[in-house]
């Protein structure tokens, strides 16, 4: 047992993302305190109560209970049944869990009921529909509590959250509670905390319970950290439930921000802007894959449209000469020049960006190609060094699944001239002052972190800024190449048009 514990604690890796102000000490210090605790308590392995709120979970509940029982730190497993009409309660009892009927409908009430009947100070909450769990998650979750390094622990899993997490919870936290913006899974139901703290917190009755506990714990001065538990499988919610969830999460965040004196009218438009920016992220895209394992990336300017968006926008806003002067300057790196170009469009209304994007011509065969690739089981995405506000409109016009581009900031629909380079264009672990590159987006798709993994990536471009991306793709094509360098690589096929590409055996 001691050897197992030492190995376990060496693997602990709970830390705060760089933008958060929540601090946790190193795992070496945790290990030292853990070994001390082992020496002082023979009963140390059975430290926590595992509480599982459940409603009609007969398909998965037994496996979740068995999983919890295998962890040597589990002292008891408690299932709070929300008056299920299936066999959840009977199966839970047969599996060896203590089963109680919730005092009222709702996950929050079930969680509170579990705290009241728990026999241990350390409590871990698990959802009743989990599967694909890595080993020793319960031990990992209570480690920061035992080591007195945190009071409230959230599980970090997978690459990103679901749609409500990415488009509602995270953007709102960034505006109203920026100190919690680094939390990866604010809506996740896998939580560990001391019963003494949990009894002081407010448990919301609906979908907002998990985000409410996080914010309430923070406002009450709790030390919060995350523990990486790898990846897990979770039943997806129907669209109607997602709508209800988003509304409830927004209500809870607004409630606590008002309570904390942080709710101001100006923040509402900022919140909507953050939600728009969130839809430009890889984390959001990956949650719309619908189990598809192939993707094709289409460059925008010069590839699906003969025009370049910033040139059309400059013509529309009568800033052509200023733009041309910047494009002629070669000494600045691409990132610096992109920022300088963005400043040209300061004070331009959002509607002008949208009008230009709506008026740009689309090359023949593009829409037909997109539809064919989708029928072939591909995700189809637009990737651009230009602005997301334009790329998102163009991707809708060609019926693609997603767009990845850089984001301009708007305040009250007026461009501020500030450009945020999309982090997905950078390496996941960057060292030094690296330049953004589309190839890093392909690396994200090919990363083993994605479950299930992508097995094939195609790319289509037209210029040198697409070269690294094209060389990484499994299949690469250029249409109307702007540089002869693109034609020097046998891996890259030169196609005269999307119409011709559709006629090849490669697509059909």
Could you walk me through the main structural features you see in this protein, from its secondary elements to its overall organization?
- The protein is α/β, with parallel strands linked by helices and 508 residues long.
- The protein folds into 2 domains: 2-159 and 179-235, Spore Coat Polysaccharide Biosynthesis Protein SpsA, Chain A (Alpha-Beta Complex), CATH 3.90.550.10; 282-503, Rossmann fold, CATH 3.40.50.1000.
- It has 21 helices and 14 strands.
- The strands form 2 sheets. A 7-stranded mixed beta sheet has the order 3-2-1-4-6-5-7, sandwiched between helices. Strands 11-10-9-8-12-13-14 form a 7-stranded mixed beta sheet, with helices on both faces.
Brief account:
The protein contains 21 helices and 14 strands. It is an alpha/beta fold and 508 residues long. The protein folds into two domains: 215 residues, Spore Coat Polysaccharide Biosynthesis Protein SpsA, Chain A, CATH 3.90.550.10; 222 residues, Rossmann fold, CATH 3.40.50.
